[in-house]
Structure formats: structure tokens, C-alpha cells
Amino acid sequence: MGNVAEFTDDSFDSDVLQSDVPVLVDFWATWCGPCRAVAPVIDELAGEFENVKFGKVDIDQNRATAMKFKVESIPTIIIFKNGEPVKRTMGAHPKSVLANLVEEAIAAQ
Question: Which of 4, 23, 35, 38 does the annotation list as catalytic?
């Protein structure tokens, strides 16, 4: 996974909510086919955006975080900035859609 971190219930606050840079979080599960399809896209994006942190939350292992952010369908991708969710999408999307979400989140005040 290279540039994509694994976030857990225990590390989420420090890794994501207290981050100095925007963070894209992919909420996923090992049994989810669309999640596996979007994983390489997120890996690619992680190599292209230097000032954004990328990570994943396995919802089966980290239910508290998934519940806190009302993840009801996977994959759900949420981009956090200054500790707050600023962009959210569900489902597997092409790279261009996810790249646009990241760019919008970076530009958001």
C-alpha cells in the first residue's frame, strides 16, 4: 500500500482529526468487491498529492469510527480538513472523480 496508512479506532483522532494536512479516508472491508476495485486508485492518488494524507479504515475492525461518521455503505470516502469532514462520497468512482474531490477539499476554506 505504500503511501496509504491504516487508521484504527485508537489512532483516528491523532492521525486524521489532528492532522495539519487534509486527509482522505477510505472506509472499506476485505469482503467488499468495490472496495478492492477502488484501492489501486487511492494508491495512485496517494503518490500524486504531496500535501494530503491518505489512509484506510477497515470497518469490520474499527466499528466505532465507522459509526461515528455514519458510514452505512462501503466504500465510503471522506476527506477531512482541520479535523472536520469536508467532502464525502460513496461507491467506487474513477480516479478523475476522486482527484476532483481531493482538489476541492484542498481549496475549501
Answer: 35
